[in-house]
Amino acid sequence: MNSDLLSITNITVAITCLISFLLMNDPKGKAKWLFHPVTMRQEQQWHRFLSSGFIHADFMHLAINMFVLWSFGNAVENYLYPHFLGENSPMYFVALYFGGIIVASIPSYIRHKDDPRYSALGASGGVAAVVFAAIIFAPWQNLYLYGILPIPQIVAGIGYLVYSWYKDKNATDNIGHMAHLTGAIWGFALTGLMNPALFGRFIELSFAGP
Hints:
The chain is mainly alpha-helical and 210 residues long. Helix content is 69%, strand content 4%. The protein has helices at residues 8-23, 27-31, 37-43, 48-51, 59-85, 89-112, 124-137, 153-169, 177-194, 197-208; strands at 142-145, 149-152.
């Protein structure tokens, strides 16, 4: 069996889809996994930093996150990380994705630890981390918005950061834009710190252009 089929990415996508489907129409079950800062602080339920990344609000939320994770995750895990980070790359990838889910939620926890109305769910922080890990390796490679419109990764990345920062400051929805922003920064920074030469390489490639 092709080992790529049993990649960390594919296994994570499968487990996340299974748990999300099982709990999508089970409010009581979902509540036990939800990121809810007040409950976490009062009852010391710190597992919610991670468990919230395995549940999603609806099918569309799940589908978008898992498609992006599957697309970028396999490229980062199977090709980019092994080539640039060596034999410890599987461990680094686990830290990238699951660390992204946890770290991305920290600002929201600090901001809402006394707000019983606030809760969040989804793997967006980890997904953003994986996408921005890919950007450091190939800034001018195209990604395809809606699967059609080609946009260089560095342009899309900068736009994503600006958009997330703006939406967080002018929030009119229930989306965790700060989690997206924090996850993206985590993915880029962690990947670069694992091999500091990547920062210089990224700058060179960025200024060299497409």
